[in-house]
Design goal:
266 residues, alpha/beta, 6-stranded parallel β-sheet, two-stranded antiparallel ribbon, binds 2'-O-acetyl adenosine-5-diphosphoribose
Length: 266
């Protein structure tokens, strides 16, 4: 077992994290937009590059916005579908998929559960199974009226366009909507309970790339700590979560996770 110092951590903190991670049989990784940033998917709230610096979120991510102007909202989501299709999982996504395969020291299987707020499919494309997509999935389109899933083709603009008509439901003819959770909507049925159960049943919770501002997802690290579970944050910036974690690791997802997993593999 080598004594690697993880990039961005003091040697003592690095040793502590590696000790917890090596001993952890059940790990839950909570991911947010920062997880996909190094793949080229802009985060929501970071100055300059955040998607919502250019668009007012209240115009796009609420049921009211959809009611008011479906073509405007659909155009934005259709553009994001194209954006996500055009990028690849980054080294952080790939490292998480590898971590699940690193045997626990006694030779038994490690359980690595991923709970994400992201609506992209980059974890899955990296080879991971996602336990819960708390905010839905970009491509899980459904009818706004009868809720039938829609798996037909959609027009994906190469550049953001201002208006695009949503497809119509084959069953009832009403508009098809994105499969994401908008502000004020319920999370997908059961998703939060599954996530909370995973957190309670963990030896380590790693929080990667989220600003910790959107509830109920943002409450999961506190639930973990309340249960005595070690919580580590991986984020290049200080966040709402930072004060209440055991280790705040100032590093990016693609910079930190491969180093961590490589250390666990040795
Ligand atoms: P935010 O955009 O609020 O926060 C992204 C976080 O990622 C910030 O804390 C950044 O510091 C961090 N970050 C940036 N680059 C990173 C990198 N390379 N590696 C690791 N971290 C990095 O995104 P979320 O917290 O995911 O919900 O936002 C939560 C929810 O707000 C989203 O799921 C979305 C939005 O409203 C819905 O659409 C319902």
């Amino acid at each position: 077992m080598t004594d690697t110092t993880l990039p961005g951590l003091e040697p003592a903190q690095s040793r502590r994290l590696l000790e917890v991670a090596r001993a952890a049989r059940r790990v839950t990784v909570l991911t947010g937009a920062g997880m996909s940033a190094e793949s080229g998917v802009p985060t929501f709230r970071v100055a300059q590059s955040g998607l919502w610096e250019r668009f007012d979120p209240t115009m796009l991510a609420t049921p009211e916005a959809w009611e008011a102007d479906r073509e405007f909202v659909w155009a934005w989501y259709a553009w994001r579908v194209g954006l996500v299709r055009g990028v690849e999982p980054n080294a952080g996504h790939l490292a998480l998929a590898r971590w699940a395969e690193v045997p626990w020291p006694d030779g038994g299987r490690r359980q690595l559960r991923i709970v994400t707020q992201n609506v992209d499919d980059l974890h899955e494309r990296a080879g991971s199974q996602v336990l819960a997509h708390l905010h839905g999935s970009l491509t899980a389109f459904r009818c706004e009226a009868c809720e039938s899933p829609y798996d037909g083709a959609i027009d994906v603009p190469a550049e953001p366009v201002e208006r695009l008509p949503p497809p119509r439901c084959a069953s009832c003819g009403e508009a098809v909507r994105p499969g994401v959770v908008w502000f004020g909507e319920m999370l997908p049925e059961g998703a939060f309970d599954v996530a909370a159960d995973a957190v309670f049943d963990s030896d380590l919770v790693l929080v990667v790339g989220t600003s910790g501002l959107v509830y109920p997802a943002a409450g999961l690290p506190d639930l973990a700590r309340g249960h005595g579970v070690a919580v580590v944050e991986l984020n290049p910036e200080r966040t709402e979560v930072s004060e209440r974690v055991d280790i705040a690791w100032r590093q990016t997802a693609a910079g930190g996770l491969p180093a961590l997993v490589a250390a666990l593999e040795t």
